[in-house]
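Entry for the shared binder. Reason: the reviewer on the internal report wants the predicted structure included alongside the sequence.
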Amino acid sequence: MQDQSVLRSTPIPRGQKRRREIAAVAERMFFAQGFSDTTMQTIATEAGASKETLYRHFGSKEGLFSEIVESRANRFIEGLDENFRRPGTVGDILHNLGTRMLEKMMDRNALCLYRIVVAESPRNPDLGRIFFEQGPEQVKERLTQFLAIATRRGEISCAAPVVSAKIFLGAIITYYHMLGLVLPERPPATRVEIKAHVDEAVAMFLQRYKVEQT
């Protein structure tokens, strides 16, 4: 078995490292200025690169933005998969998922990214498609799989897991996500508020989909 310390110390190829650096600069600029007001030239200048380098790496501004969306989504999904692999009851898993989702969705940068996607999707539909497929759709699919497995094990009773997944996700994020989007000056929800909200959503969900005793 290969030593893990060796794996961690493996250097990142120079081109890949530079690509990540440019993407990090672009992300900051998109969040600060919006998508439309940020140009490839200003990103190149801020990153200390040529515009040709940006186009060689990403193809277009949309390609660069799409990579940022995909990178953030992948990091979230990795944590999501870890959550579903943890031992625990269905309630434990759902509570961890709901808490993580609320915390991530109310993050200032996550809200900013969402606003940009909503604003730009009518002009650049691919941005909306990539965001949806890499983010919300992946979460829904993984939760659907989890609920289907839990149903087969007799832990809950979801006749239509995909519908149940949509209902749970909506109950968790809709209210606080909307607050964060339209009232950015409002202080974020506290841990106590998050816990109370998730506790109630999970309790309602488990009550609805409990296994009926015969």
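Summary line for the report: Residues 8-59 form a domain with the Arc Repressor Mutant, subunit A fold (CATH 1.10.10.60).
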